[in-house]
Amino acid sequence: MAAAAAAAAVGGPQPPQPELAASGLALDKAATAAHLKAALSRPDNRAGAEELQALLERVLSAERPLAAAGEEAAAAGGGGGAGAAEEEALEWCKCLLAGGGGYEEFCAAVRAYDPAALCGLVWTANFVAYRCRTCGISPCMSLCAECFHQGDHTGHDFNMFRSQAGGACDCGDSNVMRESGFCKRHQIKSSSNIPCVPKDLLMMSEFVLPRFIFCLIQYLREGYNEPAADVPSEKDLNKVLQLLEPQISFLEDLTKMGGAMRSVLTQVLTNQQNYKDLTSGLGENACAKKSHEKYLIALKSSGLTYPEDKLVYGMQEPSAGTSTLAVQGFAGAAGPLGQVDSSDEEDQDGSQGLGKRKRVKLSSGTKDQSIMDVLKHKSFLEELLFWTIKYEFPQKMVTFLLNMLPDQEYKVAFTKTFVQHYAFIMKTLKKSHESDTMSNRIVHISVQLFSNEELARQVTEECQLLDIMVTVLLYMMESCLIKSELQDEENSLHVVVNCGEALLKNNTYWPLVSDFINILSHQSVAKRFLEDHGLLVTWMNFVSFFQGMNLNKRELNEHVEFESQTYYAAFAAELEACAQPMWGLLSHCKVRETQEYTRNVVRYCLEALQDWFDAINFVDEPAPNQVTFHLPLHRYYAMFLSKAVKCQELDLDSVLPDQEMLMKLMIHPLQIQASLAEIHSNMWVRNGLQIKGQAMTYVQSHFCNSMIDPDIYLLQVCASRLDPDYFISSVFERFKVVDLLTMASQHQNTVLDAEHERSMLEGALTFLVILLSLRLHLGMSDDEILRAEMVAQLCMNDRTHSSLLDLIPENPNPKSGIIPGSYSFESVLSAVADFKAPVFEPGGSMQQGMYTPKAEVWDQEFDPVMVILRTVYRRDVQSAMDRYTAFLKQSGKFPGNPWPPYKKRTSLHPSYKGLMRLLHCKTLHIVLFTLLYKILMDHQNLSEHVLCMVLYLIELGLENSAEEESDEEASVGGPERCHDSWFPGSNLVSNMRHFINYVRVRVPDTAPEVKRDSPASTSSDNMGSSQSLRRPKVLQRENSGTAQVFSLVAERRKKFQEIINRSSSEANQVVRPKTSNKWSAPGSAPQLTTAILEIKESILSLLIKLHHKLSGKQNSYYPPWLDDIELLIQPEIPKYSHGDGITAVERILLKAALQSRMNKRIIEEICRKVTPPVPPKKITAAEKKTLDKEERRQKARERQQKLLAEFASRQKSFMETAMDVDSPENDIPMEITAAEPQVSEAVYDCVICGQSGPSSEDRPTGLVVLLQASSVLGQCRDNVEPKKLPITEEEQIYPWDTCAAVHDVRLSLLQRYFKDSSCLLAVSIGWEGGVYVQTCGHTLHIDCHKSYMESLRNDQVLQGFSVDKGEFTCPLCRQFANSVLPCYPGSHVENNLWQRTSNKSIQDLIKEVEELQGRPGAFPVSISSETNLSKEMESVMKDIKNTTQKKYRDYSKTPGSPDNDFLFMYSVARLGNRRFVKTKYIDLIYIPLMKEHMLVSARFLSTNMKSLSLLPC
């Protein structure tokens, strides 16, 4: 054949005959081509082949350097392009291919014989293409616009997109897309319809193209020069590529001629004999030898070795399980398989200390050690790809290689070649300065190769594709491994990736990971991976490099100088390099037959986790003030457990480790949950905004399914198998609120500041609610999960279709249509939401159409627990509650302010029933009892959120209670436990009625409980203690009713030690640090004293009293079954309940009565003690609300009338005293309390908590006010002439006769002749820059206001005001405000402390003032003592001073003098009648104190500035 003749001619190159060559060149190109074609068509075509060989030697000679050709072209005006010789060579090639005919006619003739059924159109970045999910088999399929429009995709799920990396049309490829989606042009063609290619049409191509491609390779060899270490070579490479552009374009044009020409090119590119003969460099041709030498140099400089220059590795196939990694310094690295190379060429860090980068080497047992450093080329295609990689994937070359893919033989050969060069691709990618561009072009190629399952399976079997990919990924990461600082920084043997390296920051690993994810999407390939134990071991070692990366250490002293942004790289790396491959593997573990795959993964994952725990020296306690959000090994284990139970019907216990390992597994995920609460409590504020960014990313929709959901599930699994008391105590210890859980009124927290305690307690309780309520992996179907996700997102805000698609977690991805399942995004969306059509706004812009939840969704499906879990910004939770409240009010279901609704949960999978044991453990019951007691007694001002979570947990426990336990639960024979004196059993139903009479507490020495005597029998409580009080064992047995001091920490550690002691002897031989046996709280232990509290309460009695407190009425609870016995016989408790705290308490008490007759009897007895025997009239909720409103209005009117009468009387008395100064004998006594009748104490309504009561020094009430600087009074004039707007420069804007100008002149005059201190006492300022106070009239508790401000501060985005400056909106009317004025406690009458005796005249008072000014004095004790009221008065005085500018407060000759501040505040008091808004609240606060301002001012001057806060203005 012609190809064989061409190979023979090329294989035996003869010296060219000069006269023949010269005559050939002299002839016309077309005639020469025709002559050669005729000669080659003869039976004996050897002479023709030799003649053609000689011609091509001359025309396509590479002896002339490419640089010289470029210079020649530039000199000729070619602008650096191809020279004239190169253009001439191309013309010769075209004529030779056409065989003497026209080249265009030749191209048309070849296209007529195109047998290809594939489109294969290749495009580059920014090309608009289509993707049809309905027709696609692979998620990477894409179609060009022409094929898409000519196909039938009516009603399909498709999208149009702009390609980022480039791609190729898959139309006609049945391995990538379904045949129903093919266009008309690429329907499957039968072989009978394809005409045969004439023998002579492509004969010349078979002779010419090998020499042409060899010439191109020679130019690539010639043009490449290895760059110096400090000199980039991009310009040189681009110059060479620019010169070779015509040759590459010529090859690209050939591929467009169709399948016939591509077939010839395939034969040429893959013919090994042609390549060997032309490129071996063994002949006498000096140019060929030089070219071969440069090729070998290029190989060596790339870290590759030609096989002939290196001993060949043994290629025998090892047994399964031998793909083992050895890491220098890693645990077990010194084993027989370990191998460390300290002389690696890339290890340039010569330091031996901390942070030295660890080198990863494949052990001698791996399948092929030559993967990374041995490369042998056997064809033009292989070397062409080598140079394509070396030149960093030039676009023209990539396009040529991809245009050849429709040829199936080429596609297989090219895929194998690509896999052969995979390690070299990685090395080049790491060194590239344009890694983004190179990454896109790599993926542009690889996605076309690995999307075909049959081809991927073939290269996996024949070329060890999986081994190569995993090995290459390992070697890629080895350059950025550093020593882990997690847990034991000094002795840790674990290594992690350094997220600050360019490799991770620039996502350089992305194309390789993308390829790995792509091939794992094929079931046959994933099956081989899951069956190969060696690959699983290797992969788990790879995943361990990301375990604990990007460690955060809490800053305790100073703010970080530079906020690192490495967390972007860390989250992207875990998601792409760890989570995405995990989801790919999980997609193939959905049937019972794949159980063995899951067992394999779980086995090696547990082994990797144990190695990790050993490497970081972890026993049972995490290092304080550290957190990492990256635990991919934990998440692999969790997700495969979930899949095993949900889809493969595996017994959960068969794949779980022992108790000790479970205890270790729960610690780090639990630490993350506690750290989330710490971050939201601003405990990590010194670490900058980046730590909040990490917390938000951890729960964000694109990451939550791979991060927080597996963590929560793993904790649920651990909780279902571990001792519940141990787990609950671990939770509260991790959240650092153990010291808060005491029934004493005071406590000392050794690990947490007081300002963070409440928010951390809220976090702990919220976590427990999520843990016990969430069912994502505990029994919910895919349909239910999708519906719950969608409802949660819609309840936060109305969403567009695209935003909702983006917010639904991606894996498993219901919107892709790739993962099979019964759920459908569109059908669920139509079931839960209504569409609001787009509307045009007045400005002409159009508002997008939005989806909003249906009414029945709000009524039955709104789940606040799911909303909290999926909330990135905390304001979204409030937004959901506001929308829920609006729905209830609109629909008339509940008129008040509702609490988050209680939703009955779906049933648990039987494997997880043990999770509900948490609700029935004594430790939790002690915590719930303690918190209910503290809320009832107003200890630490616990928030409504805490109460809501406590009630939620109680109700959840009642919903999931076991059979009624015996009231006489015996503990005889078992070990004595601290819990037993609290509750007799572990069932919540029975423990709710158990009365606790006395509790022993550990309190500071200053606590009021210290003075109490200890009764004979007590219960004990030491949850707030960090030390355990040991009592003699004899005493414990003699007095069984007296419990030991209870300590959460001590109990938890005791349980852990028991588990360790029960472990096997082999486990006991492990050397453990001594610190695991004894624990001491951080910081110095406070001086605590044991005291006895009399409680005499049960959970039921606390709930009933709580009902009274929430309703604001005594004896408010009446058992409803006393009126309607049917409630107990046929209870109608809905699965979904609306209402507030009162409703929740009533619902809990009803459920408690339903589950136990004894509970019912005790509830009735408690109510009988405080409730009259005659039941009250039964009224509806609406009537009850109306009566409450009328009652409050009547009380308000009565209070107003009393106040007005009192104020009128006091005003009259004050005026009479002021007018008769000269008549001491006629002075009216100012002892108002003796002269006037007693008036009732003022009562205020708090608009936040809804409670009414007087203002007290311990819990003051305040008035919502807006403080503003004002100069209105300063503009007053004596002249009644109207003001005129100045229109000339001579006219003044500020006339001299204004009030402010007059007072300024007066003060200046006084300061000229008198002492400064005396002058400042004689004038008033504030005419300019004074303080104007406005109020909406609403009052609130000061502590409620602080909680309200804290909630606003935690909100991420606020519009219109600054919370840091104290600005807020009134919680009731939303009026703008910036301060709260404390209401002075009392009965609307001056306190006795401020009264003077009736026998003192004004003159005597003046003398007393002068004496006080001359000597130091002090305020009365009750005022100067540190009370909450005094602190708030100090705060509001600061607010008043800060309202105006300093220049309006500083009139003294001595800047910064205390006299300035006194003058300003004194002037505020004097001018209050003009500047304060006249409301009854303002008068109530200030008028009782103004009469004695002279006396107080004198005393004030003799005290420090802190006393300024106590000035009664």
Strand order of the largest sheet: 17-16-18
Number of helices, where a helix is a run of at least 4 consecutive DSSP H or I residues: 62
Fraction of helical residues: 40-55%
Instruction: Give the number of DSSP strands.
Output: 26
pLDDT < 50 runs, ≥5 residues? 1-26, 72-82, 310-367, 812-823, 964-978, 1012-1046, 1063-1085, 1171-1179, 1218-1239, 1388-1398, 1416-1424, 1473-1513
Could you report the average pLDDT, rounded to the nearest whole number?
A: 76
Q: How much of the polypeptide forms β-strand, as a percent range?
A: 5-15%
* Radius of gyration, whole Å: 43 Å
- Give the structural class: mainly alpha
| Shape summary | elongated
Describe the protein in words.
The chain is mainly alpha-helical. 49% of the residues lie in helices and 7% in strands. It is built from 62 helices and 26 strands. The chain has a three-stranded mixed beta sheet. A three-stranded antiparallel beta sheet has the order 23-22-26. The protein has a two-stranded antiparallel ribbon with strand order 1-4. Strand 12 and strand 13 form a beta hairpin. Helix 4 packs parallel to helix 9, helix 9 crosses helix 12 and helix 18 packs antiparallel against helix 19. The protein is elongated, with a radius of gyration of 43 Å. The N and C termini lie far apart (114 Å). The N terminus and C terminus are likely disordered.
What key phrases describe this protein's structure?
3-stranded mixed beta sheet; disordered N terminus; mainly alpha; 49% helix; 3-stranded antiparallel beta sheet; 26 strands; single chain; 1513 residues; 62 helices
